[in-house]
């Protein structure tokens, strides 16, 4: 059914001809055609909530680049938006909520959104996109982790110290667990619906897990991500990504995902030694390298491929989302370099197997 | 000469009766007596530049709490300020520079500040404080790392993605090395002068090293910190702290400092297993825990002490600076809990040695 199944094979740690590659935020502001649609939509949330447009921007990077996966255009804050907390985006400041969720009463009031009734625009965008893709590449559905979504809900917006949610964690953990449980239940339903609508792979983004102590990370982030993974059908491959989670890879690899996403602070070869026997690895070019020349980009691609080495189970990606200041031509350089320079590592493997 | 030498002994990994404790930013806005002096001074920089007042606020936390060290009240950006880049503080936004240092020409123009001529106010503050302390506890002098100071100079202020300095790193590394070498030379002279003025211990703060790849961290941060350490007299104990550097502890422990500072994302027992045979460890309570009740603070102190276990070489601290929203009473709880609860780990050791 899927014509280019390199990404699915790598997730299953099966042999491939070339290392598959896609980019976090590959449908985004670095593309002029994205900025055009975005300005037509008026604002970011309207773009997310208009399935035809969300489908169109999801497909844009695939028109330009030889990417091995599509990821549905959406946002990790669709769930609290569906909980009626008044999500809005202040230009240059990131997401904010008119009603932060920072006490027992406001947490008690939160409902579990019904995916088709309250978040139907996401499912519609997935259905449109699946149809338009016509099996060209797999489509990734996604959600934020309960902890990460909770950070935005409790703080009411971006934060440097996350003092409010951490205060709650250390003074009233039971209340925070109630919030995270509601989020985990909501996310499970949401991702099940994304799968029913056609998502081939699911990714959990834990942007803020890395601000926790090892014990708090286990109890307040990893635990709930594990619950979510367990609620999903076993045949759907999953990827878990905790930014700044490099110290905790063994724990992350144990919660049942097929792949673990890596940011750029860890050497992918070291990560493979630690957890490569259990999971596939996704990453991990520093997004800042995309500002450099084609030669420098290619050189860093080669370093990462060499560090991972021969064999299966690597999905190339950035260590975080691509930033708006990147030239689209450099993405072509990256994608083509991954495909071209990775062949030697897969040929070697096939040669070894033939012997 | 120093009456309470618990901190110096722990830095040398020698036996102590109790685990020594001090707090990053212990002279700071959480103290009402600090806020009073600060409002008299007018602004933060004037306070730094008035030796009598800097001395007074350095001593304030020692009046209240049974701390085992003092740290001179100053800022990591005194050096670029002495380079005439127009340092100023925008309320709620952090430090900024009127002239960012983001090209070859502006880097070439930078001079190496003379510590006594250009930064004499720091040396005077240290001399005053040493006299006032009268050997009560050791006095820590400090500087930012070249990479961290460079981040502020190149970005011109706080940044989320550090796109400008990382762009320089990947497109024009030679220029960035020129900047970092000038900073390393300046910092070496600055710290030598702090030692001559009376600083007993030196700490390097690498707040932003953790945003780099492992290779870039080695080349653009660790390398220059090692140069600085090598320029200091061998008898002066040193501490190196890279926030989010937990993945690179082995490399950090190899550059010749006596102690390595830890943020709260790593278990102190794991860190001890990895590098405790080489260096003392400083840390690592999550500063957010200081918002909690005395019982919760004490419980987390006990966890960290137990995780480090019996024996020498632990200096208790937070994993980052104390925040302005903390009740001073909670600092007393912390300091006293460290001293009280740590005795068992040192008694055991002495008992073992006696056998």
Q: What would your notes on this structure say?
A:
The structure is a homodimer of 355-residue chains. With 355 residues, chain A is an alpha/beta fold. Helix content of chain A is 51%, strand content 12%. Chain A has helices at 6-11, 32-41, 44-48, 51-64, 78-82, 104-109, 115-118, 120-133, 146-155, 163-171, 173-197, 214-231, 249-253, 268-275, 294-308, 328-354; strands spanning 70-71, 87-90, 94-97, 139-144, 201-206, 238-242, 259-261, 280-285, 314-318. In chain A, the strands form two sheets. Chain A has a seven-stranded parallel sheet. In chain A, a hairpin with a 3-residue loop joins β2 (87-90) and β3 (94-97). In chain A, α10 (163-171) packs across α11, α11 (173-197) packs parallel to α12 (214-231) and α15 (294-308) packs parallel to α16 (328-354). The longest helix of chain A has 27 residues, at 328-354. The relative contact order of chain A is 0.14. Residues 348-355 of chain A have low confidence and may be disordered. The A-B interface holds A 161-163, 166-167, 169-171, 210-216, 244, 246-247, 264-267, 286-289, 291-293, 296, 303, 323, 325 and B 161-163, 166-167, 169-171, 210-216, 244, 246-247, 264-267, 286-289, 291-293, 296, 303, 323, 325.
Largest interface: A-B, 33 and 33 residues
Work out the number of β strands of chain A: 9
Helical proportion of chain A, percent range: 40-55%
Discrete helix count of chain A: 16
| Assembly level | homodimer
- Rg result of chain A: 20 Å
Largest sheet features of chain A: 7 strands, parallel
Spatial order of strands in the largest sheet of chain A: 1-4-5-6-7-8-9
Helix and strand pattern of chain A: HHHHEHEEHHHEHHHEHEHEHEHEH
Low-confidence stretches of chain A: 348-355
Average pLDDT for all residues of chain A: 95
């Amino acid at each position: 059914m899927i014509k280019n199944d390199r990404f699915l094979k790598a997730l299953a740690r099966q042999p491939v001809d070339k290392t598959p590659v896609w980019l976090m935020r590959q449908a985004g502001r670095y593309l002029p055609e994205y900025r055009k649609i975005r300005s037509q939509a008026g604002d970011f949330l309207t773009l997310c909530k208009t399935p035809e447009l969300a489908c169109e921007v999801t497909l844009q990077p695939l028109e330009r680049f030889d990417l091995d996966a599509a990821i549905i255009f959406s946002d990790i804050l669709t769930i609290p938006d569906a909980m009626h907390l008044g999500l809005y985006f202040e230009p240059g400041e990131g997401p904010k909520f008119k009603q932060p969720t920072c006490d027992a009463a406001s947490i008690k009031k939160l409902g579990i959104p019904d995916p088709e009734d309250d978040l139907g625009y996401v499912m519609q965008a997935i259905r449109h996109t699946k149809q338009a893709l016509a099996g060209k590449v797999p489509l990734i559905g996604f959600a934020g982790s309960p902890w990460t979504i909770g950070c935005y809900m409790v703080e009411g917006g971006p934060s440097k110290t996350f003092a409010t949610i951490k205060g709650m964690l250390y003074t009233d953990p039971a209340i925070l667990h109630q919030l995270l449980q509601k989020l985990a239940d909501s996310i499970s339903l949401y991702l099940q619906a994304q799968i029913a609508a056609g998502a081939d792979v699911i990714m959990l983004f834990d942007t803020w897990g890395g601000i926790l102590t090892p014990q708090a990370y286990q109890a307040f982030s990893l635990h709930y991500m594990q619950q979510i993974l367990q609620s999903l059908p076993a045949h759907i491959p999953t990827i878990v990504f905790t930014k700044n989670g490099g110290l905790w890879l063994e724990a992350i690899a144990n919660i049942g995902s097929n792949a673990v996403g890596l940011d750029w602070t860890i050497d992918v070869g070291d990560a493979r030694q630690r957890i490569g026997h259990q999971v596939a690895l996704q990453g991990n070019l520093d997004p800042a390298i995309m500002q450099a020349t084609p030669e420098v980009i290619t050189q860093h691609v080669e370093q990462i491929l060499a560090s991972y080495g021969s064999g299966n189970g690597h999905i190339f990606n950035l260590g975080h989302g691509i930033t708006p200041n990147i030239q689209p031509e450099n993405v072509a350089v990256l994608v083509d370099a991954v495909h071209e320079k990775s062949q030697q590592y897969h040929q070697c493997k096939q040669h070894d197997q033939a012997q």
